[in-house]
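User: Can you help me understand a structure? I only have the sequence.
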Amino acid sequence: MLLARRLLVLLLAAAVPALPQAAKSKPVVWILSTGGTIASQGASSTSLTDYKAGVLTGRDLVKAVPEIAEVADVKVEQIANVGSPNITIAHWLTLATRINRIFTEEPATAGVVITHGTNTLEETAYFLNLTVKHDRPVVLVGSMRPATAISADGPLNLLNAVRTATSPAARGKGVLVVLNDEISAARDVTKTNTLRVETFRSPDSGYLGFVDGDQITFYRSPTRRHTTASEFDVQGLTELPAVEILYSYVQPSPILIQALLANGVKGIVMAGTGAGLVSDVEKAALAKAKGTVIVRSNRTGSGRVPPRQEYDSSGMIGADNLNPQKARILLMLALTKTTDLVEIRRMFAEY
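Assistant: Let's start by predicting it. Here is the structure, written out as tokens:
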């Protein structure tokens, strides 16, 4: 009798169709689009250097890469649609505010991807590295070839950026830059070539990791302060203090320094020769800077600007190994908090 009952249960179970398993939810990634070469179109498939940036929308870019839907549920928002030379501080403030709101109000969001032109991508990345207040990944991505080109690099770069934004290993590493299968830290990376797809490199410290077909692999983490450890807060700001960059060279004229000081700039970053050296002519002009903070970076492309008595005694601040464009960003943010040279020097040692 017991055996008959067991057989009946088995027959009934076989007769009832199995309930479908609930589809596994995918991580949510926001894609904020700003334009650039990745959103550009040329006159033909071989127009690799002559094209119009910022033609395609963020939705166009996502639609062109259906594989993204296998990785994440994406939400697309158009912040701007310009070539990266036309990115402004207003765009930076908009991006920082929007990203902070997304992470605060959308807890299910795994990460944010920003499509961006490559010419100023590193600057936007470093600004966000200092002003995003969450530890979830923010990944900037662009391309070196227009969307209409033979072997356009944008589609795979975008897919890899989304994959990186969903990676738990990317959390807490600050703002990232992903191009050419390579992952770089916002603070370290810079564009090193006008045309090559491997243009983004970190001369002093190398890549953080790589995006391969099977997995995303990190080999190191940034050590300087960023995101959740940053003291900078741009909430409510509509502009930043005026800071300009000047380039050193043989027999420079003091006219540009004099003009900037006369126009009341709050800071000047000198792209000095060698380890941040400036000529006697420049030193004499900068000595008249009253209330203007002077930071010494270098024009070499890599390496530290160490302390040096002749400059330190006059109040100039070394930029460590930040390039001039990133030293400008840190100085602008520093000046939103203080004009004290000791404090600003500390910030350049910590960020």
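Now, to help you interpret it: The chain is about 30% helix and 20% strand. Residues 1-20 have pLDDT under 50 and may be disordered. Let me know which part you'd like to focus on.
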